[in-house]
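User: Hey, my collaborator sent me this sequence without any context and asked if I could get a structure. I don't really work with proteins. Can you help?
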Amino acid sequence: MSDLAIRLFVDGPTLTKIIDRMVESAEVYRGPDPNDRRRVLIFVSRIGAAHFDDIAPLISSIERDILDRLGASDAATLTSLLSELLGDPVSSRPLSSRRRETLNYK
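Assistant: No problem. I've predicted the 3D structure and written it out in structure-token form, which is a compact way to encode the shape of the chain:
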């Protein structure tokens, strides 16, 4: 749960409430970690997988829209940076070796 909270940028209590609602609606279920009984794992149910299948076309559409707006190179950079923020780098290049760009905030 703590790993998921970090990836979703939410605090633990908020994630617990979200997961509680998803358990109530049978979209996910909790189970113990066989390697560490202190940890709780979350599993997608058949209902949850079906809901995901229902929204998959929308997700694909949004991804295509982002790619169209940014172009392939900038979209790859965005993906790499977001993955790095999540602690799951898709690029083996260290951050310090990447080209730095100035961002202008208005």
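In plain terms: The beta strands are 28-33, 36-44. You can pass these tokens on to your collaborator as they are.
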